[in-house]
Amino acid sequence: MQSVGIQRLIVKNNILIKNTDNVRINLSSLAKGYAVDLISNYLNQNNITNYLVEIGGEIRTLGKKNNGSWIVGVVKPYSSKYQSQINFKLNDLAIATSGTYHNYIIYEGEHYSHLIDPISGKPINNNIISMTVITQSCLDADGLATALELTGVEKALKIADRKNLPVYIIYKRNNKINTIASKSFEKFVKINGVKV
Questions:
Q1: Cβ distance 54 to 37 under 8 Å?
Q2: Taken in order 31, 26, 170, 196, is the CA torsion positive or negative?
Q3: Alpha-carbon distance 125 to 119, whole Å?
Q4: pTM to 2 decimals?
Q5: What is the pLDDT of residue 190?
Q6: What are phi and psi of 181, to 5 degrees?
Q7: CA-CA-CA-CA torsion for 179, 184, 190, 191, nearest 10 degrees?
Q8: Using alpha carbons only, what angle is made at residue 66 by residues 65 and 70, rounded to the nearest 5 degrees?
Q9: In terms of CB atoms within 10 Å, which of 65, 105, 124, 187 comes out highest?
Q10: In the structure, how many helices (H) and strands (E) does the chain have?
Q11: DSSP reduced 3-state for 115
């Protein structure tokens, strides 16, 4: 933890300087979203008006697919095949999901996430399995999905509702997988005629 924190970095004349030798910057939680936005922006500049760009599950759409909506899904955790937990229309928006069900280790019977709590320096230990966020920018969706996953279900929903942010959470409680969505996510999907 002696090498962790924004205070270990200084910006001077548009140059990033580290004031501690052991500091490393890892942008992997934003890289896929950033790359999706770069490709999407390139397509926009070349007047491509219908596309879906996807890198590792991070997606941005524009226009339509064969005169219809783009349909995307959130992966069902722990399924042996890539099945969807939920599908919905996504037009002219971006989506990203952060999850603990792919990147983890089990050590002495305990599940350890690849996501690190920046306060404790330890793997997060909450009940969120996946956090999906919809925004205009895939970079924003990617970063927000990771950040909100760190906060836990209740706090993430409060933040999402306060910011009018479409969020879909898959979490475990009492050894059962549950789902919950923010209020602004409701417009994206209905299940059996009932809003999520």
A1: no
A2: negative
A3: 12
A4: 0.85
A5: 56
A6: -135, 155
A7: 10
A8: 20
A9: 124
A10: 3, 14
A11: coil
Q: Is 22 exposed, middle or buried (0-12, 13-18, 19+ CB in 10 A)?
A: exposed
Average pLDDT, the chain: 87
**What does DSSP assign to residue 116?**
B
Interacting residues of 35 by C-beta distance below 8 A, sequence separation 6+: 55
Q: What is the pLDDT of residue 121?
A: 75
Whether the predicted pLDDT of 191 surpasses 80? no
pLDDT tens digits, residue range 27-37? Answer: 888 999 999 99
Q: Which residue has the tokens 């789902």?
A: 179
pLDDT of residue 183 exceeding 60 = yes
**CA nearest neighbour of 97 among 22, 186, 2, 185:** 185
Distance CA 193, CA 196 (A): 9
CA angle 124, 128, 131 (to 5 degrees): 110
Structure-token pair, residue 76:
């069902």
The strand pairing partners of 10, in sequence order, are 17
User: Rounded to whole angstroms, how far apart are CA atoms 112 and 14?
Assistant: 37
Of the CA atoms within 13 Å of residue 30, those in its CB half-sphere come to 11
